[in-house]
User: Fold this.
Amino acid sequence: MLKLKLMLGFWLASLTRRLKNNFYLYLALLFSAFILLDAGVFHVGQNMRDKAFDMMVKNRIFKPDPDPSIVIIDINEASLEAMSKEYGRWPWPRQVIGELVENIQRQQPKAIIFDIVFSDADVYNPDSDSYFNDVITACENCFFPLLRLDASQDSKSQLTYAQIPGLAHSTDADQQATFAAIPPYFKGAWKQQRMGTHNVYPDSDGVVRQYRMRHHDRGWTLPALPLLVADAMQFETSNTPDDMLLNWRGKPFTYQYVSFSEVYTDSSSSQPKRAGDEFKDKIVIIGSTAPALFDIKPTAMDKQFPGVEILATALDNTLHKDYLKVWRGKLPYILLSLLLVWLTTLAFYFKVDRDRFNGIFTGSQIGLLVLSYLAINFIHTYLDLAAPIVWAVAYFGVAKIYALATDRALQRWLAFGLTSNSETLEVLLMPIAIESPETLGDAVMKLVRKEIEFACRAPNQTDILVGTQSGIWGLFGDMVIVSWQYKPEDAYREAAAQDAQQLAAQLPSLLNKLGLPNHPTLRYGMHQGNIVNRADQLAAQWRLLFAQAMIELEKDYLSTTEKVETPR
Assistant:
């Protein structure tokens, strides 16, 4: 086990000597490859983005209020139960809905929007269908959904874009282009700018976060219902994105809901109790929240969100132009991720003070998350920083482990640096004393150590001793100890000696460059010695070498001082 530990320590130390700080560059290149691969193939970063978005938008401090003019007439479970006694289970005869529409129309609403697909005739109630068709024919502000089917079925459809009244198209649009869709069965709904899609397209994880406002195909533009309603109400919609990231107003049932059965029963009563202007100047959406009608979707706000309220949210966003904006796509994700990873790389490569960098890195990542959270609260913009932050944290974690492991390996090598087949290790110690009236402190000494490490070319160990210790240890003052270790026969021996001489020549200019306070005095010495491979005496031999180096340093200093003070 001891041999294994020694071999591992030797391998880490050797690896560090070979790679030095280049390891951080190689690691950054590896992470860059992973980022590019993920953006093109795996899309893990996209999933991070979506989950972070869900968490932020769900826990916002400031949510926009729902538009009070939007009212949902809800075909809920209570309505299904109440209406079943007279009309049976859903679907009810169309006359029921027609009578409700007539009553609402008398109150002069701004719009009546159906979130119900009237796809087929009611063969058992043709008179009911005829009545409903007459009602919606007379209704100039009724809007109907057109359910867009999968594009793979377009070639099998007989429905053409040219058949849809008022559909926008380019001059070279294919007039024979067919598309798969379920339009309203009733001709009274086929009016210009009154039929639009109400499709909800979830993201790859099955969660609805955005709303398709336009479908483009072969020169034709098929608009969504919210866009048609906003245009009819003369709102500016030209800048509305094709895929709108929804700015949710809250959890389910945030909008004003009224029960279909209650409104219908009251409207047909001889003595109505509801206000006669309940729907005046309102935008009325007729839809369902009953689970039995299968219009419940998972969204960023809740796993069970009514489809009719998704439509209401999209309409609300369109009218107020407060839909969420986001810097999305592969390019922003790649650029932000690479930027954070390589900034972290440079900090490790240039040996930025670790304590300070740890604080800066942690603070910056938290700050980016806070910035993203504030942006979605105050300016309706989602800054997609989750995945880049995760990449930066992952890089930081690996680099930190390497830095700590290699430091430990070098320290271990410093004390137990002999391989099992080595008899002797030769060591060159260079103690550097920096004397000032006041101690320089830990931060300044770390700067000194960093400059010395940059000045050295040959692999070495650089340690600092700050003169803030209590008692006798404070007498050591501020010191830097540079050490080179090698086998006596190693070619590295000459390189270490040259490195020490060059460092000695550069020390004065190095301190001047730092501009240290109080103009400290600089002293250094060099001591060479051997360590014999005896496991039980290695630490003692290192302490002896250090003591000998310090004694030589102080002897030289005292000898020089005595010569200066001796009278002629």
User: Anything to note?
Assistant: Confidence is low (pLDDT under 50) at residues 415-420.
